[in-house]
Write a structure and sequence with these properties.
There is one protein chain. By secondary structure, the chain is an all-alpha fold. The protein has 2 helices and no strands. Helix 1 packs antiparallel against helix 2. The longest helix has 29 residues.
């Protein structure tokens, strides 16, 4: 199991990934189609990272 400091790092990483997902969702709405497309590609990748972090968080907190 993870120690308290590592659990805190996982939670913080999960929260940060969530904020990035939210910001990228807004950027996808950009007027510039190239910017919106780039944001969409990044969003797909970040959503995967966020989901992995959520799974790690659930496993390490016993919520799985």
């Amino acid at each position: 199991m993870l120690n308290a400091q590592d659990k805190e790092k996982v939670v913080k990483s999960c929260q940060t990934a969530n904020l990035l997902v939210q910001d990228l969702r807004e950027l996808v709405k950009a007027a510039d189609p190239l910017l919106a497309d780039a944001a969409l590609n990044l969003l797909r990748q970040v959503v995967e990272v966020e989901q992995r972090l959520k799974r790690i968080e659930a496993i390490t907190s016993g919520k799985a």
